[in-house]
Amino acid sequence: MYKQPLHILSRHGMGKNKVSFIICNKWLIIFLVTLVSTNTLNAQPAPCNPISYRIFNPFVFNPAIAGSKDFSTAGLIISNYGKSNAQLATINTRLSKTRNEYFTSPSNPEFTNIGLGGYFFNELDDPTHNIGIGATGSYHLQLTKDALSYFSVGITAKYILNMYAGNTELENPSINTYINNFDAGMYYYNPSFYAGISATNILDRLENPDSLGIYNIPITRRYFFYGGAKIILSRYHNILLEPSLIITSGDSIPDKIIEIFKPGLKLYAGDFCIGTYLNDFNKISFFGQYKYPRTYLGAYFELAYKEPYYKQPLLVEFALGINISAVKYGTSRSYHW
Q1: Cβ of 104: how many Cβ atoms within 10 Å?
Q2: Which of the four pLDDT bands, split at 50, 70 and 90, describes residue 272?
Q3: Please, where are the H alpha helices in 14-164?
């Protein structure tokens, strides 16, 4: 059986394509201007955890990414860090066109311009507890005739329940806050390059119902730049290197500018992927991922190296995913990342 190599490079297969640097530079300028335009401190995304969703499910922070693959994917990430834990369940797909199928029909599917996604998250970080749900829609515009270069826009509407447990010693009451919010993003991608910008929790935290100032809702506006490249090291052995960078900040840049940069690196080798994502420069982080036909398993670890291991708990996150190909006949395209 013929195995198509390096499906991770393209929606419909291999091919060379020129990157539109003008579009990417415009995005970067818009992002940098927006980044310094206002002045709220201590912003957090929602969800904040699990951390590894930025690796396994980036459409959660940029809705324009939903549907950018030629297969559907559903995943679950479970995180544990000391007394804090979180769970995130996701699904996203690109709607395919309906057509008459015959046994002699080619197996390549045809897609519409619409991508869909959704997720549910549960975060517990004493004394706060966030439960949220999001629904995502995206539109993908084909830029070249070979269907390898796309520009997409997306939006996510979400509903969050924030619960504050209170403090009996200080006689602070418990507080439940219901929050409607939305995210928006843009994304450019081709077989060898991708870049996008997005904003999450655009409505900010709205009005804080706690008039006494006891508790600030930890859900505020945040901005993301996400870009990377895919470099083929060996086409025959399916070996590929993918460096990437996430730049993220709230409505003001932190004192330590390095904190806004989150570099990552993936090395694909056949069915296995290893890499690192530096969410915190004071910690060592690494992850691994292995894919079976239509499923994958992943794990992410983060450990502080400037303090003894017994003073800082080990962050552990596990990911389980299912990839569903749009191909129904002929050669099954089960070699998806």
Answers
A1: 7
A2: very high
A3: 21-35, 53-56
